[in-house]
Amino acid sequence: MRRDRLTGETTLVVPEWETAKAANPSALELKMPSGTTPCPFCPAQMDQPVTSAGEETARVAGGSRQGSWAAVSLLNRWPHTLRRDASEVVVLSDDHDAHLGSMDLDDASLAVGLLLERAEDQRQRGLHPLVFVNHGTDAGASQPHPHGQVIGLPVPDPVGLVEAPALVPGCCVLCEETPEDRLVARLGGASIITPEAPTVDYDQIVVPTIHGPAEPREIAAGVGAALRALWAVTGPVSYNLVLHLVEHPHVHVTPRTARHSGYELAGLHTCYIPPTVTSARLAEAATADAMREAARRSDAA
Ligand SMILES: [Zn+2]
Ligand SMILES: [Zn+2]
Ligand SMILES: [Zn+2]
């Protein structure tokens, strides 16, 4: 059993079984929700004078596709908060089939930048922003078009409260050198690591190198690399991103490949592959991805 000094989570790493089990317990493949038709987040609907999706709160232009927008924030038609202006949906791309693992870095940086901007706007209104991305049915998404949510809570979220003491400058666990067997990749401005107590096989955290304000481009680069490594190893799967933005910003990249069973109700997560093994597999995929990216850049130059 492992306990995570950052999240406070407890994980049971299941021992290797002598008898092979037919059904792989962590094998939920990516399914996308059918969503509303026509898609309320596609440019054809979004660019109506009054969008079909909801009231627009912010828009970022300058995406890679000319004449279009890169990311748009809308008030959620179906808010999870009493305050009508505290539930926002951030459409991450004008491309219905994109996601943060496939978007080019300029577009992904603009999308992440808008998530951070909307979180800061909520904070300045005295709310405690919860920022996450759902991709796929098993991650809770109800629309297939790539989007995130920024929800202004009246009090901090419980996980954020648990993490706060572990992020205090001077004794911040994310400022520590990550042991090699938990390191997936070291990028320019961020590392990708395996948590001390993963909540599921192939759980990852993107950790900017600097303890301080979040930089959209470093986060976008880290999340993109983490998602490509994940899908290279597991095939396309649903995932959630949770962006924690105080003190040492970081992003939890959590695949939703396993259904919850009784263990989670007892406060225990389960891993069926030793985290050192998942970490090594992701690291190998991330290295191959970095080499492909470098080759693509030198072709372009
Ligand atoms: Zn769409
Ligand atoms: Zn730190
Ligand atoms: Zn966190």
Characterise the protein shown here.
With 301 residues, the protein is α+β, with helices and mostly antiparallel strands. The chain contains 6 helices and 13 strands. A hairpin with a 6-residue loop joins strand 1 (2-3) and strand 2 (10-13). The model has no long low-confidence stretch (mean pLDDT 93). Bound molecules: zinc ion (ZN) (3 copies).
Helix/strand layout:
Blueprint: E1 2-3, E2 10-13, H1 43-46, E3 56-61, E4 69-75, E5 87-91, H2 105-124, E6 128-135, E7 147-153, H3 158-163, E8 183-186, E9 190-193, E10 204-208, H4 216-234, E11 239-244, E12 250-255, H5 262-265, E13 268-271, H6 275-300
Parallel strand pairs: 2-13
Antiparallel strand pairs: 1-2, 3-4, 4-5, 5-7, 6-7, 6-11, 8-9, 9-10, 10-12, 11-12
Helix pairs in contact: 2-4, 4-6
The site of one zinc ion has 4 residues, from strand 12.
State the total count of DSSP E strands: 13
Cα shape: globular
CATH architecture of the largest domain: 2-Layer Sandwich
Termini, distance in Å? 49 Å
Task: Report on the biggest sheet.
Answer: 10 strands, antiparallel
Number of helices: 6
Radius of gyration: 19 Å
What's the structural domain tally?
A: 2
Give keywords.
301 residues; alpha+beta; HIT family, subunit A; 2 domains; ten-stranded antiparallel beta sheet; three-stranded mixed beta sheet; 6 helices; 26% helix; globular; binds zinc ion
